[in-house]
Amino acid sequence: xxxxxxxxxxxxxxxxxxxxxEKELNTLIREALNNDEWIKEASLQSNTTAKMVKxxxxxxxxxxxxxxxxxxxxxxxxxxxxxxxEEKIDQLEEKLSKMVKIxxxxxxxxxxxxxxxxxxxxxxxxxxxxxxDKLMHSLNEGxxxxxxxxx
Length: 151
What we know:
Elements: H1 7-33, H2 36-67, H3 72-150
Protein name: FlaG/YvyC family protein
Organism: Peribacillus deserti
Region (Disordered): 103-151
C-alpha cells in the first residue's frame, strides 16, 4: 500500500514548484527581451507594418472618395463637430434661460409698479371722493335748510 502524504505538504510542494517555474519563465523572458537580434527584427517588422498600414489607409481614402463613402477620419471629424455643436447649444440654452428669467423679473416689477401706482392713485381718488362727498353733503344740507326756510 501506498502511504499518503500530509495535504499541507502537498500544497506547499506544489507552491514551491510553481515559484520555481515562474522564476525560470521570467529568466527566459528577460533573455529573449535582451536579445539584440530579436529587437532589431521586431523594429524592422514594425516599421514595414506601419508603412503598409499607412499605404492601405491612403488607398482606402482614395477608394472611399471615389465611392463617396465616409472614412474613419471623416467620422471622427463629424464626431468632434457634434461635440462642439452640443456645447454651443448648451451655452445658448443657458443664455436663453437667463434672458427668460430677466424678462419674467422685469414683467413682475412692471406689474408691481402698476399696482403701486393704482394704489397711490386710488388713495388720491378716495381722498378726492371723500372731499366731494363732504361737499355734496354740505350742499344737500344747505339746500335742505334753504328749502326748509322757504316753506
